[in-house]
Amino acid sequence: MSEHRKVTLETLREMKAAGKPAAGVSCYTAPDAALAAEAGVDFIVVGDSLAMTLLGFDSTLPATMEMMELFVAATRRGLTGSAPLVVGDMPLGSYQISDESAVENACRLLRAGADIVKIEGSSQLVQARIQAITEAGIGVMAHLGLQPQQKALVGGWKVQGKTCEAATALYDQIRDVCNEGAQVVLVEAVPREAAAWLHSGMQANFDAPVPLFGIGAGVDVDGQLLVMADLVGEFRPFKSRFAKRYAEVSSMKLAALSKYVGEVSNRSFPDDATSYSMDAKELERLKS
Ligand code: KIV
User: Fold this and answer.
1) Mutate to test the pocket of ligand 1, among 61, 215, 234 (most ligand atoms within 8 A of CB)
2) What are 155-191's pLDDT values in tens digits?
3) Which atom of ligand 1 is nearest to the CA of 46?
4) Ranges of CATH 3.20.20.60 domains, the chain
């Protein structure tokens, strides 16, 4: 078990300065958050991926503020005392309408237990929201590269920043969101060479140090994120190239459930060890 401490944005900047990569997971429940903290994870993203990995939708689009609040609160309840930084994801529709409703929804996630919020994109509209949210005193992680909420617009889940032009455009987007106040940037599904180039460009040219984290962006960034359901082998519909499986929890669950079904049908469960028994005298009385 690693040392327990409260991770803040400042901690993440210190880790970047020290060249120590941060480890993050997307997870959503109290038991998973407790395990992540015990394993020494530095930040938890309560992501709208829960719509897919937990609730069975085929995209992140159906996630609502109510769902996000429920799972941010559950995650926070799983963390006692010192803990990873909790990032609450802003679902589709929670920031597009106006600066005011974006700030209100970011406040809802903080009231539920998040430390900062995550917002996808870098359009003028998103930049305005990032500015409004950070001016309200709330930290923002900007999510660039592959943005699952834009899946329909970009024609599916595709690797981003593959050409010189695309990588340069991504750099400009990172610069724009950081100028509006984003304190952390997450890039998803970007070639490792492009991510390394973005990282060194930010290092050389940005006034303030902004940690650059990656999910599917190679090793040359300030930290990694994986979705816990991918990492433990619980999400089965498809597997992204970057989603390394460290365990096969689904197979273990399936084996346990199949064994249970077998034991119920052959009456070997429940046995004496898993049943309550009645006092012999009471049983006698009952029979008579
Ligand atoms: O929703 C989520 O968990 C995320 C990460 C996969 C980046 O946005």
Assistant:
1) 215
2) 778 899 999 999 999 999 999 999 999 999 999 999 9
3) 3
4) 9-247
